Amino acid sequence: MPAPRRTLRAGFSPAQALTPAAPARLRVGIVGAGRVGSVLGAALSAAGHEVVAAAGLSAGSAERAARLLPGVPLLPTDEVVAAADLVVLAVPDDTLAGLVAGLAETGVWRAGQLTFHTSGAHGLAVLEPAEQAGVLPLALHPAMTFSGAPEDADRLLGAPFGVTSRPLHRPVAETLVLEMGGEPFFVAEDDRRLYHAALVTGANHLVTLVAEAADLLRTAGVTEPARVLGPLLTAALDNGLRRGDKGLTGPVSRGDVGTVSDHLDTLTRRAPESVAAYVAMAQRTAERALAAGRLKRHEGAPLLDLLGGHVPGSLASERAEG
């Protein structure tokens, strides 16, 4: 016979519920039942918490909520917050501050609640209006990409979560992440924006680079670019993760000015929209190859001069000479 669910008594803090000695379950409200919010809500439900309400404006949110949070009603945001012990704020970065402040103005936040947002770009400062009302604030960012596909739930298992919290609240934050199937690691408040910029550079820009390379291959007559790029990019990613700059290969890391010049001429004629991206990445690759000793100064200077000539006002050649 299953053990009875423990309920939160009057005056009992939800934060106290998330301790080994007091494993009470929480009523969870999801604000933003999109790609991330619905998946996290399903994970919290699987951990034994009760998702009591969700808010989502789009048809896509309603579809995901129906699939991942069956039976959970979609309510106005203030009603979701009022019904919950734990409020999950899974909304776009630029709307988070206004949402938290607006809810504070309505007086819907209450002392003893927990809330966490899923924004990588923000830390705890954005939650200050809720914290002033007595809410325990957490920033729990899953360092994973979610596309809205069914496999998103599986991607959450073992996913790293960037955690920012008050020192006193860190065990609560880590417990929530572990319950959702993730792996917590700490990010200081002052480092939050840099942390997020790093992830955007690695994930979002990677998709752009892959799509760009595939388009160029199609222009070159390759009808199935994924067959060509798959093995190559898999090996390159493995090299980059294991070896860093020591894994650099190709004409830029060798200082092959002639080959790079041919690339620029060809791109200018056949794919002019790709020139700026090629130059920017080649410049940064050359700079990193120089710093890592993969490229000698006398090899890098002509290359950066060439690249600098394709970007008005570039300081690339000055860097090579400095």
Order of helices and strands: HEEEHEHHEHEHEHEHEHHHHHHH
User: Which residues sit in consecutive blocks of at least 5 with pLDDT less than 50?
Assistant: 1-12, 312-322
- Class by SSE composition: alpha/beta
- Residue-averaged pLDDT, rounded? 88
CATH class categorisation of the largest domain = Alpha Beta
* Helix percentage range: 40-55%
Whole-Å distance between the termini? 74 Å
CA gyration radius, whole angstroms: 25 Å
Number of helices: 15
The 3D shape can be described as: elongated
Quaternary structure of the protein: single chain
How many domains make up the 3D coordinates?
2
The biggest beta sheet is recorded as: 7 strands, mixed
CATH topology of the largest domain: Rossmann fold
Strand order of the largest sheet: 4-3-5-6-7-8-9
The count of DSSP E runs of length 2 or more, i.e. the number of strands, is: 9
CATH superfamily of the largest domain: NAD(P)-binding Rossmann-like Domain
- Strand residue content: 5-15%
Walkthrough of the structure:
52% of the residues lie in helices and 12% in strands. With 322 residues, it is of the alpha/beta class. It has 2 domains: 14-187, Rossmann fold (3-Layer(aba) Sandwich), CATH 3.40.50; 195-321. The strands form 2 sheets. Strands 4-3-5-6-7-8-9 form a 7-stranded mixed β-sheet, sandwiched between helices. Strands 1-2 form a two-stranded antiparallel sheet. Helix 2 (35-46) packs parallel to helix 3 (59-68) and helix 9 packs antiparallel against helix 10 (225-243).
